[in-house]
Amino acid sequence: MVTHGSSGLPAADLLSRHADLLSRQLFGWDAAVRRNWECGRETVSTGFRPLDRLLPAGGARRGSLIEWLAADDASGAVALACAVACRLAGSRTTGDEPVSSAATILVVDRGGRFHPPAVLPWLEQAGSGTGSGRGRPRLVVARPSTFEDELWAIDQALRCPGVAAVLAWPGRVHPTAMRRWQLAARTGGAVGLLVRGLLVRDASGHGLGGHGLGGGRRSESRCEPVHARATHDGPMHVEPTWAEARVAVQPLTPAAAAGEPSTGPSVRRLRLSLVGGPWAGDAMLHERADELFLDMSNGREALGRRRTATVPDAARLREWGREGLECRAS
Amino acid sequence: MPRILTIWLPRWPVQRRLLERPELRRVPVFVCRRERRGVMKLVSWAWAAPPRSPRRGGLPAGNVAMAGRIHASRIHEGMSLAEGMAVLASVYGSRACQVAEVDHDDPLADRAALEELARSCRRFAPIVAVEQPLPGETSRPECLHVDVTGTADFFGGEGPLVRTAVWTLAVRGIHARAAIADTPAAAWAAAHHTDSIPGDPVPAAQSSRGASRRRWAIVPPGGQLRLLGSLPAAALGLGSDVLTQLEGVGVGTIGGIARLPRKSLASRFDPQLSRRLALFTGERAEPLVVPCSAELPTATHAFELPLSLRDTTADDLAAILDRLVEACLGPLAAAGKGVTALQVRLDRSQAIGLGEPSAPMVIDVGLFQPTSCVKHVVELVQLRMARLRLPPEIAAITVDVVSAGQADCRQRTLFGGPAEASAMQVTMLLDRLSGRLGRRAVFEPLPLADAQPEHAWAAVPPLQATRRKTAAVPASLSVRRRGGPRRHDEGFPAIVAAPQRRPIWMLPQPVRLESVVVAAAAETGPAEQPTAVVRPPAGFRLEGRMHEVVKAHGPERIETAWWRGPTVRRDYYVVETSDGGRYWIFRRLGGSRRAGERDDAWFLHGMFS
């Protein structure tokens, strides 16, 4: 019998043991790579505690996409996405070395309706509030004229390491394009903030008229096959997503806030629901929801407001988080 | 015998502004110079797209087009702004004066833009010069002189060349007239009077108004005195004093001046006359002064056999471009410079049997910041080539640097700083975006101190907004509208300090709201009282859906812009609807200044998306 000199084990067993060890190392590396992909990237607080609690990573992970589903054109989703973009552009890590020196926000506005004066003061405060000394983040607007140019512009912007956030309202897109954006964001490190109508969640498209999100050019958009699942409201068509999270934004009406402190014109009360993410299939059974107050004067969370959150209990949250981590294999 | 192509760019100061701000084509533009005691003197003016219909207070419709041309010629350089406005109002009505854009003169910027255009005209011939005023003259250059001696055959002759030159500029939105003659002075005269040259063999171009206007002319070799002799003496570029002298002796044409005894010209008239006549006839050579930066590098790769682009892979073409671009950028980089604009010329192969040779295909590439990165420039060229229909066969590729600037040179760190790398990446991204989407489709918003929401910001090219904030703008060169506010360069205007009252999405044009449910009469007050407090509507219909207003904030009255047109008088409200939506609506209070006039129309202007 052939034995190994030092260990005294048979050669075949030794080979098998080495092979096992190597395979374990390989799996370990693979898992490490996956963790680096998904968890190793910097996570930045969005500046809104309720939103941070909703997002799987506890904030916006650089190099990822976040979808915002807006009920209609006046729901406040774009404002919230802009506020998060300003926060991302003006943020820096607490360590010695600034992980991201990106201070550029790129807005892809095919419809030509973005009104920068509403956001520019937010940028000023985002640059001064962080104390990073890098000045005000830069806001660049790109206005593509065609749907193809819009897809290309978003892809290019996400791929650029110098861009902190890409803000766009692309309407309905092919899942392949979304996957491409996800990979582009991973490459560049930007956060893609895609504001879309509830059309992607509900094929009936209630509440979206000619001015609907996506530039009102749905005829040019490419409608894609969607997965179907049944809810208590009837059949609901859900478009798959490659985003880190899909957050539905619903403005709370003054009537709903009756008996609570008046918000006034400078504060917007929004209800956020986590309605999707990179889970396998349609395993999302429980939607999580929370509320936040957006101060429209500075793009930050309005503190001191009474919040009535409808957050699931801790056990369900932990279970959900475990499921999400396991299923996030994109 | 040399042949000179002169390209005249009428009213270049205005044209330059129209190129930078195309929206000004709809309004009359006056470029003025402030003189003693604040008097504004006209340097140039134009109205690219005047109205075809009569304006209130103006002439009837049938007479506007013809009378506009006649009266507009009465607005000339040196006239005061008030006089020019008066002439304008007599033709188009007082509203034309209200919407007019008045800008300060900026001769340095005009000259720089003209030089850049000269470099881009090297597609016609290698020597391109900007018109130089003679010693003692203060005229403003508006012409380019191109030495086309021996190069016209590449375009199929002088006729196709001059036609190509005019239309190439027209595609870029530049109005030009051109002429070819033996001397720059003769070509200058012919270009300024293309309508008056008899026997022009080139077919006349139809102007946009249907009138026949020649935009080009060709003076045969040695025929300037014969063909241009009937032109007025002003076609020699003479000053007003000399013209008055000539008028006093009854000489009004170039031919008349040429018939005068030469020896007595210098003694009897200003020396300028004999000098200009000698330049016109060619007795005295006029050197073409090429702009200093014309020594920018150029690289050409000529193929021994025509290269079929169908059989050539993108990598092969990229390798050739890479070599050519590197040859151009290398000397610039050594001098600490970078390219900001370049041309790639693809010379088509002249197939056997085809009679008329083809002009080269020219691809223009522009950058926002000077760069010496070869890979980036090649990528931009390929991006442009991917969207063009290239010729099937090419004989040569030429890379020509049109403009260059001082590159931002910093000492590199050992491993490269993340901030520097990010900034460079962003600049390259902006170049790519503008290369595909268009130069004007990528911009940075610059806030303006204007109360009217439509004019509260301006789109400026990227990287310029930051420069405008940091660089001090000389007072004489700053842009200011007549009667309007000055552009803010430091910090944010106060009007933007209340962003909660400005929507993130604003409609390009306010949409009139239908089926507006007015509030109770007791709250509204008597309608016949113009001073009654206006209440927001209780509901409105938008796109077939009724919105119930449950809360409203306002009003915010905006009454401004009298200098742009009808006075804007609006009462804005931020209304919240029953479904939580937040809209920005306004009630128009009437655009005229007549007291008591009211307009009850409600408009949607934006959404707090």
What does this structure look like?
The complex is a heterodimer of chains A (330) and B (609). Chain A has two domains: 12-41; 44-327, P-loop containing nucleotide triphosphate hydrolases (Rossmann fold, 3-Layer(aba) Sandwich). Chain A contains seven helices and 13 strands. Chain A has helices spanning 11-38, 49-54, 77-90, 120-129, 147-159, 175-188, 314-327, and strands spanning 43-44, 60-61, 65-70, 104-108, 138-142, 163-168, 191-197, 227-231, 234-238, 245-251, 267-276, 288-295, 300-301. In chain A, helix 6 links the parallel strand 6 and strand 7 (191-197). In chain A, helix 3 (77-90) runs parallel beside helix 4 and helix 5 (147-159) packs parallel to helix 6 (175-188). Chain A is elongated, with a radius of gyration of 23 Å. Residues 93-102, 202-237, 279-283, 308-314 and 320-330 of chain A have low confidence and may be disordered. Chain B is an alpha+beta fold and 609 residues long. Chain B folds into five domains: 4-8 and 107-281, no CATH class; 28-99, no CATH class; 296-439, DNA polymerase, Y-family, little finger domain (Dna Ligase, domain 1); 444-497, no CATH class; 501-607, no CATH class. Chain B has 17 helices and 23 strands. In chain B, helix 2 packs antiparallel against helix 3, helix 11 packs antiparallel against helix 12 (271-281) and helix 13 (314-334) crosses helix 14 (374-385). In chain B, 38% of the residues are buried. The interface between A and B is large, with 68 and 64 residues. Strand 5 of chain A pairs antiparallel with strand 15 (442-447) of chain B, so a sheet runs across the interface.
List its salient traits:
heterodimer; A: alpha/beta; Rossmann fold; 2 domains; 9-stranded mixed β-sheet; two-stranded antiparallel ribbon; 7 helices; 13 strands; disordered C terminus; B: 609 residues; alpha+beta; 5 domains; 7-stranded antiparallel β-sheet; 5-stranded mixed β-sheet; 17 helices
